[in-house]
Here is the input.
Amino acid sequence: MRHNRGQTGSRRSHHALASASFTLCEKCGNPREKHVMCPKCGTYKGKVVVDILAKANKKAAKIKTAEGR
Here is the structure.
């Protein structure tokens, strides 16, 4: 059935997007999303979750071997 503009607008009133909230990383001071690991240093709640340096070294080695082929 057809809905008038008021009913459609009332239904869509909850569809608005909320802006992302950011906070500063405790370790490096880089802005990051709340409840998400810091992409710069790889820490969350003061603990190292991902070793960013090792990840970068692995990627560089992979690129170097691909160039050698």
